[in-house]
Amino acid sequence: MFSHNKRLQYTVRVSECNPGLANLMLEQFGGAQGELAVPWTAAYVDNIGEPTADLRSNIAAEARAKIVYERLINLTADPGVKEALGFLMTREIAHQKSFEKALYAIEPNFPPGKLPGRPEFTSVYFNLSKGGPEVAGAWNSGEQWEHVSDPQQMVAVDGGDGLATVELSAEEAITLEQLAARTMSDPDADPLTGAELGAGIEDEVDEEDILNPRSSQ
After folding, report:
1. CA nearest 19: which of 66, 87, 88, 81?
2. Using one digit for the tens of pLDDT, what is the confidence trace for 186-217?
3. Contact predicate 58/66, CB 8 Å
4. Where are the domains positioned within the chain?
């Protein structure tokens, strides 16, 4: 059994009618950045089963929700609505702080998961940007990073030839050859497409051949 109390947690005072704002507010509840969805599907389940990764996702969701509230506040001059939206926006901050506290209480919390990364690659920054000024910061330089800019050092970093190779058994090789033969395209073919028919190219083709293709064989 439960008791349902319909009183709002925060008193909302609206002084003017604003259907446009009301329509935009639906984004916060049922839109891509909202906290609810219509219709509900499993696509809205944002959970991978790893607490640290899920907490980071929750932190990001609270941040997005706060931004939406800020934009809604900027779209109204009604002081009561601004106040109510400000309360909801502030609660997103509280939720984000709560999720962050929970994340930081888990040690270690990075990287997520159980398996460690390969140490020879976890602190390497490959500078793949070309044609512009290079920007350096804590995210790609310093004592914690090995900075690689030479293109020759970015190819086949495992010591191999950088090419994809697959080892097949004799039976698998036969199956692959049969598949290739069955799905091979004819480079000399020039089939008539639906787009060409819609463009009026059918005038150049015998109508009887289109309606009864076997009759021309």
Report:
1. 81
2. 999 998 888 888 877 655 555 555 556 555 55
3. no
4. 19-104, 118-183
Q: Which residue has the tokens 């997520």?
A: 112
| Interval 78-134: pLDDT, tens | 999 999 999 999 999 999 999 999 999 999 999 999 898 999 999 999 998 888 788
| pTM confidence score | 0.70
Q: Does domain 19-104 have CATH number 1.10.287.180?
A: no
CA dihedral 28, 33, 34, 39 (to 10 degrees): 120
